[in-house]
Specification:
Blueprint: H1 5-17, H2 23-43, E1 46-48, E2 84-89, H3 99-106, E3 114-118, E4 122-123, E5 128-129, H4 134-142, E6 148-150, H5 159-167, E7 174-177, H6 188-198
Parallel strand pairs: 2-3, 2-7, 3-6
Antiparallel strand pairs: 1-7, 4-5
Length: about 210
């Protein structure tokens, strides 16, 4: 098998130095780099369920919908464009801090079909209970009807992606995942959708 240029270069330099990383070490480093890149793209990127080969069919019993923005065959403008949703996750005690992020999503200049906010009932890995504070509840009440609040099982950093795929059954739906501590520019969603349309075989990400 012909190894890529960067691989042979590393291996050749190791021979010239009389030591250096073995082939196994280089392969391990390459695998770790790949995982990091994929995780980064999932965390702050644009994905569709069909693009990653997942058919969301999770049990509805695992999700408690407080407010549901609804579903549609086409996009919000009814013009046959793809359905576009934004999904984020946070935890009890931090919902109030995500208020500015939610506001920036509501103010996007591209019409969104749904905004999902996932708040797990508990996060055992961080020893966090799911009890909402008064401030958390006030924020959720304020956005009631515009944000779909869900209480899924904690799945770590992928909660915001997997949670949205459980809710969105159409594999052509565009799912944009965002962080809960960033105020996004009004053209963020439009830029990602246009990028995906122009480069359908590539994964689009947004740099803050």
């Amino acid at each position: 098998m012909t190894m890529p240029t960067w691989y042979t270069s590393v291996e050749g330099n190791a021979r010239r130095r009389g030591g250096g990383p073995s082939r196994r070490v280089v392969e391990l480093l390459a695998a770790v780099l790949f995982v990091v890149l994929v995780a980064g793209a999932w965390s702050a990127g644009l994905l569709s369920s069909s693009r990653i080969g997942i058919t969301p069919d999770g049990p509805d019993a695992d999700v408690d919908t407080v407010a549901d923005a609804g579903r549609a065959t086409d996009g919000a403008d009814g013009a046959g464009r793809p359905r576009v949703v934004v999904s984020m996750s946070t935890f009890a005690g931090r919902v109030q801090d995500a208020n500015a992020t939610i506001a920036s999503l509501v103010d996007q200049d591209y019409p969104l079909d749904a905004i999902y906010l996932h708040v797990p009932p508990a996060i055992e890995r961080l020893n966090i209970s799911g009890t909402l504070t008064e401030s958390d509840s006030a924020v959720l009440k304020f956005w009631d009807g515009r944000v779909s609040v869900r209480r899924p099982v904690d799945l770590g950093p992928t909660t915001k992606l997997i949670g949205a795929l459980y809710a969105e059954r159409d594999p052509n739906t565009i799912v944009i995942t965002v962080d809960d501590d960033v105020v996004y520019r009004p053209d963020m969603v439009r830029g990602l959708v246009e990028s995906m349309t122009a480069r359908p075989k590539m994964l689009s990400t947004y740099g803050c």
